[in-house]
Amino acid sequence: MDKNEFFREATLKICGNLEIEEAMFSTLQFLRQVMPVSWMALEYYDKNLKSMRTIAIATQAEGKGVDLLTPLTAEAQKGAERRFRTDYRKVRLVRNPKTKKLVQEMKIFHGVEPTSILLLPLESGGRLLGALPLITEGDERFSQKHADLISLLREPFALALSNTLKHRSELKLYDRDFFWEVTKRICGNLEIEDGLRACIEYLAQHMPADVIYLARHERDLGAMRIVAQASKGKGERMNLLIPLLGQAKKVMAQARQAWLDDMLPPVLVINKPDEEPLTRCILEGLGEPTSSAMSMPLIVKDQVVGTLALIAEGNDRFEKHHAQLYATLKGPFFVAMSNALKHREILKLKDLLLDDNRYLQSELQRLSGDEVIGANFGLRDVMYKVQQVATLNSPVLLLGETGTGKDVIANSIHYSSSRSDGPFVNVNCGAIPDTLIDSELFGHEKGAFTGALAKKRGRFERADKGTIFLDEIGELPPQAQVRLLKVLQSKEIERVGGTKIISLDIRIIAATNRNLEEMVKLHQFREDLWFRLNVFPIWIPPLRKRKGDIPALMQHFINLKTRELKLPDIPTLSPGAIDPLMEYHWPGNVRELENVIERSMILNPTGPLTFEHMNPEQPAKTLELREQSDETVSLDEIISSHIRSVLSKTKGKVSGPDGAAAFLGINPSTLRNRMKKLGIDYGRRK
Fold first, then answer.
1. Does the reported pTM lie above 0.70?
2. 61 HSE (CA, 13 A, CB side)
3. Cα–Cα distance list, 340 to 210, 263, 334 (Å)
4. Which range (41-50, 73-82, 162-171, 403-412) has the least confidence?
5. N or C: which end of the chain has fewer CB within 10 A?
6. How far is Cα 514 from Cα 471, in angstroms, rounded to an integer?
7. Closest of 7, 124, 122 to residue 56, by C-alpha
8. Closest Cα to residue 366, out of 508, 559, 602?
9. How far apart are CA 567 and CA 83, in angstroms?
């Protein structure tokens, strides 16, 4: 074979194939007819990475398109740089490869044992592109004649290398654009089903695509859970379990382990599903016709968190380049899968929280009384006013003696309103120390004061979209009254130590057993706050004014205390047991009635209940004497007189089992605050 014929035939082999790996393999087979070549590669020196980059390899068995980097030592880097200088742009024959450091490192990297090497530099337009190394193995060696023949192929191989590099650059740009467009569609939607729909509509422009499924392998259940699916124009969130039976379950377990061990390609192409049991099982479970599938596992930290399956109806629909494109989407889809699972878990927890909240609200309503006892009798006028104001957002002021059931009426207003699904926050203003009242009501920022280790939401914030019930509003200190006035005016608060304005949507119900109008005159309560609260006052009559409700209240409390005391049966009443209840004047109102009934049930849990321990005669006489008096006194004077009387009996002692607070049935701190407001000195008297 002369040189012209050699050049013509070799050029046809090099340039007659579109894929560089096929051209390399075909050329190697032709060259073996005239020289002992066993291996050759296309490569170039990457100065930025200081490595040799191999882009194609041909052996006696196959040709491969690759993208391999061979890291080089400093000595080998110098050899590579010398190799690609202008002075060395001719075919080099290396008869003893063992003396070359660069050759030794390349030999170790590729796993070959060269006995001689031909190195053909490749240039185009005066620019060095790379090189074509050819090696012999075994006893055969290259000669100068072989070097002369190879030199004829400089231009064809340079053209092949140039086209390959250009083609790969275009592919990278195409892959980059493809990756960006799909990522934008996947991650540009909050809902996973919408992301999948947008994704498949774009995928269909580049490959066969009918349906895409996002699935998760439930190992404990031995099933695949379909999380979402999408087709052109439609996305759907799903929660479908497909059991993996028989051979399908075994194949899934093997595939899972093989993926984790990196023994499978990043994308599995199944073009004949009838021959693959796992794909066939899933397609049948989904009700899909015979379809080709590409399956890509989403793996992170040695866990297969999900699988992305692309379906196209029919056999042999997918090709190698489809799988390569599909594999680039592993990262975005893993993020989408993780977010979908986390979002689903958050929604589940939110539903549980809402369910718990509804249950607790119903329990609170049940315990506080979902039915107002006396609504059709003694509290009929009160309930009429409740119906008038419940549907509005106006403030409500509940007035009445202690123990009349103002909290029950507040509950009734809330649960009869459009805010019934929102929170109902009960605040006893008299039970919160003055130093903590602002923090409790309005919250505080981290570091607002000593001990404020974290941000805290106040009661007003917690009542947003609902109702806040401010019981004992008359006990509110002056500085808190100012801030409450601002809330009523603007429905805005600022946390203690904060500057951010927090808008609220709340309804305020206040209650007191004190004469606020008199307190305003005594400058103990802000007049402007009184006007704001007194928009719709509701006076709740004491129990002595509605004794007709006592039988119903008595039966209600007996049923309630039977549950609370865990009694086996509801105690019976002795004949005439209700008479002393009807004769008593009830200074403690409904709360006192509840306590009397509970005391009787503790003393006689099996019945019959008599209420003989009440001894109502003396209080009745006291009331009679008071009613006979022509002198009119204020409520504060009566309270002050009673406190002084008790203090005289306890010799000025306030706290302790034999102190005035114990006799009066209130907290010692509350009693001291009350005495301070009424101007009563306290301290033990000798």
1. no
2. 0
3. 22, 28, 10
4. 162-171
5. C
6. 11
7. 122
8. 559
9. 100
What's residue 396's pLDDT? 93
Q: How far is CA 560 from the centre of its chain?
A: 40
Q: Does domain 3-169 have CATH number 3.30.450.40?
A: yes
Count Cβ neighbours within 10 Å for each residue of 461-489 and write b for 16 or more, e otherwise. Answer: bebbebbbbbbbbbbbeeebbebbbebbe
> First vs last Cα of the chain: how many Å apart?
136
Q: What's the chain's Rg over C-alpha atoms?
A: 45
d(CA 148, CA 580): 130
Tokens matching residue 612: 């003989």
Q: Determine what percent of the chain is predicted with pLDDT higher than 70.
A: 86
User: Does CATH number 2.20.25.530 belong to domain 543-625?
Assistant: no
Residue 215's pLDDT is 86
- State the average pLDDT for the chain: 81
Sign of the alpha-carbon dihedral angle for 195, 199, 201, 202:
positive
Domain boundaries, the chain: 3-169, 188-343, 369-539, 543-625, 630-678
The answer to whether 100 and 80 have CB atoms below 8 angstroms apart is no
Beta strands in 202-323 (DSSP E): 211-218, 223-231, 234-243, 268-270, 291-300, 303-313
Model confidence band, residue 510 (pLDDT cutoffs 50, 70, 90): very high
For residue 202, what are its two tokens? 């774009």
Per-residue b or e along 642-657, where b marks 16 or more CB atoms closer than 10 Å to that residue's CB: ebeebbeebeebbeee
Q: Which two tokens stand for residue 526?
A: 């802000």
Rounded distance between C-alpha atoms, residue 31 and residue 85, angstroms: 27
Q: Do 3-169 and 188-343 show the same overall fold?
A: yes
Task: Kindly tell me if the per-residue pLDDT of 538 is higher than 60.
Answer: yes
Instruction: Copy the structure tokens of residue 276.
Output: 């693959």
Angle between helices 330-368 and 192-203 (to 10 degrees): 160
Please write down the HEC assignment for all residues of 63-126.
EEEEEEEEECCHHHHHHHHHHCCHHHCCCEEECCHHHCHHHHHHHHHHCCCCCEEEEEEEEECC
Task: Classify strands 291-300 and 492-493 as parallel, antiparallel or unpaired.
Answer: unpaired
CATH topology of domain 369-539: Rossmann fold (3.40.50)
Task: Encode 396-430 in three state secondary structure.
Answer: EEEECCCCCCHHHHHHHHHHCCCCCCCCEEEEEHH
Give the CA count within 13 Å in the CB-facing half-sphere of 600: 27
The CATH architecture to which 188-343 belongs is: 2-Layer Sandwich (3.30)
The predicted model gives 552-564 an average pLDDT of 88
